[in-house]
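Entry:
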Amino acid sequence: MPSVPVYENFINGQFVASAAHLDVINPATGAVLSKVPASTAEDVDRALAAARSAQKDWARKPANERAGYLRRIAAKLRENVAHLARTITLEQGKISGLAEVEVNFTADYLDYMAEWARRIEGEIITSDRQNENIFLFRKPLGVVAGILPWNFPFFLIARKMAPALLTGNTIVIKPSEETPNNCFEFARLVAETDLPAGVFNVVCGDGRVGSALSAHKGVDMISFTGSVDTGSRIMAAAAPNITKLNLELGGKSKTDKCAG
């Protein structure tokens, strides 16, 4: 069998070797495309610890400075559209034209979110008490876990990451084990920028990794896109810790192929 790429988790600004790996399969041919980490609970702990350690310094940066990192990542994506689109097509089955659209749309979204840096505002409310005002400040939550589906894999990295990072949070992304290659290619480009270590992390694996993230006390918010069934399990796992949730559930994103 020809050798295939071996991807590793991206934790604290580095690619970290894993003890075990999963095969990623080309859905069109059945061929093995790559090997990716079969992460453990210990890997999840390390990624969340890195994100926690980086969060306070990241939050201290002005929002406009944080936005600059998003713009630089967007520029990296635009320099690598063809390669990224090919990666998506091979592992997910999306036709090349749509895969290129997804990559460009992802870069556009990062730039769009960067523009929100000057719109993070507070409020001043008049109190019922004499000579008193109430000030409302928007503060980061802390560490966010982003859990992704297989059907729109690349754009959803940015949709979890960009709002979190812009508002002073750090993140751990868990891609679908069926379509993780594009996420590791995204991480490779992030590593080529000056984004501080620990702000963006990737851990791969099956549902047990998602379960470990969902039940972890070190997660302040979970953002998940996927099935209703999985979303309900995430909700149950997060409930004992009263972890904030953002759940986008039940979308199909189907593709009809017609003979012509």
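The longest strand covers residues 32-37.
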